[in-house]
Amino acid sequence: MCKDKLINDAYDLYSEMVAKKISPDVFTYNALISGFCIVCKLKEAIDLFNKMILENINPDVYTFNTLVDSFCKEGKVKEVKNVLVMMIKKHIKLNVVTYSSLMNGYCLVNEVNKANNIFNIMFKRGVTADVWSYNIMIKGFCKIKRVDGAISLFKEMRCRKIIPDTITYNSLIDGLCKSGKFSYAWELVDEMHDRGQPPDIITYSCILDALCKNHDVDNAIALFKEFKGKGIQPNMYTYTILVDGLCKDGGLKDARKVFEELLVKGYNLNVYTYTAMIHGFCNNGLFEEALTMLSKMKDNGYLSGNNFTTLPKCLEECCFVSSLNLNGCEYLQEIQGIPPKLKRLSAL
C-alpha cells in the first residue's frame, strides 16, 4: 500500500492493528515512514519515528536511511545531521545507501565538491560504492560542467567491475553533449547497443537537445526520424525540444506543423511547448499568432500556477488585455513585455 502511495489506507490499517492490541514492529513503522516520505509528508513520518522510539521499538538502518534521504531531498541539513548523530549513538553503521543519500542531497544544491568528499570518505571507511553512488556523482559533475570528473568516475566504475546502467550512460551523454563532446557521446551510444542496454528516449532527447542548441536542426530532424523508426516514441519533452529548435532556427512552419499534429493526436501539451511557439511567432514578427497562442494557453489554464520562467515581449502588443493573473507562477523571473492597457496584475 505504501509503495503505491495508498498511505492513508495503510495508516488506517495500522490504527486498526493498534485498536486490536496487535503490536506494530519495526517493519510496520518502516513501511509507514517510507510511505509518508514518498508523498512528502515528513512531519507525519517524524511523528511515527518518535512514536516508535517511545514504544521502545529500535529503528534500524532502513528507518534512518529513509529519513536521511527525505531530509536531503528537502534540503534540511540540520535535520540530516540530527539523524546521523542518532545513528552513531545507536551504533548503527552508515551504509552505501546512507552515504549515497548524503551525496545526492549535496548534488541537488550544486555542492558537488562536498558530495565528492562524502564519496571519498565512504571508500576510506570500507563501504563499497554501487552503481547508484556513481550515478549520483557522474550526474553531479555533469551538472556543474565538470565532465572530465564524470568521465574519470565512469572509467573507475569499469576498473571496479561495476556495470554502468542506462542512467549512467544518459547522465554522461547529456554532460558530453552540453560540453560539445559529440564524438565521445556517440561512442557511448554505440557502447550501449554493444552491451545490451539500448538507448532510450532520454538518451536521444539529450542528443536532440544538443543538436538543436548548436543550430544543427537538419541532423536533429534526421535523428528524430531515426529513433521513431526504431519504435522509440518521443515524449512531450522530446517534442518540445524539437519545436523550440525549429522555431529558433528558421523552421517555424515545420514547428507549427509538429505542434498542430500534437494537438490533433490529443497530446497534453505543456507550458514549455506553448512558450516555444509563442517565442517563435514573436521572433518572426507574427504577433497576432503569438497572441492567439497566448489566449489558448489561458483557455487551457496554463497562465497561472505553472512553472514558466519568462513572459515574452509580444505582451506589449496585447492592447485588449486589461488584467493578468500570474498567481502561483513561482518560477517566473522575467516579464519582457507589459500590455499597454494593463490595469490589474495579480502575482500571489
Task: Tell me the layout of helices and strands.
Layout: H1 7-19, H2 26-38, H3 42-54, H4 61-74, H5 77-89, H6 96-108, H7 112-124, H8 131-143, H9 147-159, H10 166-178, H11 182-194, H12 201-213, H13 217-229, H14 236-248, H15 252-264, H16 271-283, H17 287-299, E1 310-311, E2 323-325, E3 334-335, E4 344-346
Task: Give your account of this protein's structure.
- The protein has helices at residues 7-19, 26-38, 42-54, 61-74, 77-89, 96-108, 112-124, 131-143, 147-159, 166-178, 182-194, 201-213, 217-229, 236-248, 252-264, 271-283, 287-299; strands at residues 310-311, 323-325, 334-335, 344-346.
- Helices cover 64% and strands 3% of the residues.
- The radius of gyration is 25 Å and the shape is globular.
- The chain contains 17 helices and four strands.
- A two-stranded parallel ribbon has the order 1-3.
- Among the domains are: 130-195, no CATH class; 200-269, Serine Threonine Protein Phosphatase 5, Tetratricopeptide repeat (Alpha Horseshoe), CATH 1.25.40.10; 283-348, no CATH class.
- By secondary structure, the protein is mostly helical.
Which features would summarize this protein structure in a list?
PPR_rpt, Pentatricopeptide repeat-containing protein, mainly alpha, two-stranded parallel ribbon, Serine Threonine Protein Phosphatase 5, Tetratricopeptide repeat, 348 residues, single chain, two-stranded parallel sheet, repeat, TPR-like_helical_dom_sf
